[in-house]
Structures are given as structure tokens and as C-alpha cells.
Description:
By secondary structure, the protein is mainly α. 53% of the residues lie in helices and 0% in strands. The chain contains 5 helices and no strands.
Amino acid sequence: MPSPVRHILSVLIGIVAIAAVVILLPWMTGHLFMAGYIVDIGTRLGIFAVILLLGALMGVLTVSTFSPVGALVSGVVLVALGLLYPSVRLPEVLPGSSYPDPVLILLIGGILLTSAVFPHRWRAPRQPMHTLSPNWQPPTPAQSAMYAPPQSSPQSPPANSPWPQGPQGPTQH
């Protein structure tokens, strides 16, 4: 994948992650605390789906071979939201939302920022060591026979060995 494409794709995934954290995390925490941890099975499945979605997005941003630009951008935005918690109130997009603990948003943003600082993430993915040329031909049978292992019979254990002998001799038990 060319470098500009991987940077653009990473930024788009980062924007989706920001939107998911801003919209879904408040919904999840609102339902958890509003019901005192006793919620119906549909809400529990929704909370589980939100956790899976957020985990998958964070996993793609932190460990994938995409560019770390998406992790850097979304990490900076989430850390800023976590630090500006008292002065910034997010709109309630989904019913039943409450603003999550700013420490949780700082933690998610910090993880994304930390994953973006490793130098190996900024390098383009390596190309294969060798590629087959367009005129490559498989080896002939004579060439394959040159590199084949020798055709020797398997060595049987000595006669006084405690291990049983194969079909060549008697078996001792």
C-alpha cells in the first residue's frame, strides 16, 4: 500500500474511533450507572458490542501496519477532551448518555499516543525480500533430484536395545 494511502486510511480510522468514543462511551457508561448495574439482556448485549467495537478500533489503530497518524490524531483529540473535561460538555447524541469519567478518555487517548511514538510504526511496511521474476520456471526433475535427500533406509535399533525393533527383526517387550 503506498504511503499516502496508508496515512489517509489511518486518519479515517482515527476519526471513526474518535466518533465511537465520543458517542458510544457515554451511552455505555450512562446505561451502566443509570440502572445500577442491573440492566436487561438487550442493553447488556449493546454494552458488550460497544466494548468489542471500541476494542477493535483501538487494536487496529495501535498495532496495525497502517500509519500511526490516525493513532496520533485521535490520541491528541481524546487527551484534549479528557483534560478539558470541566469546560467541554459533549452533546447527548444517544438517549441515556452521561459523560464518562475523564480518566477513561485520558487512558484511551494515552494508549493511542503511546502507540504512535514508536519509530518502527513510522516506517513503510517492508517489501518481500525476493519476488519471482516474470520468466521464472520451476526446476526440472533432474535439478530437483540434485537437491533431494539421500535415499537411505531408516536405521534400526541395536539388538540389545530396550526399544522394540520394527518389521526387520523380532520385537522385545
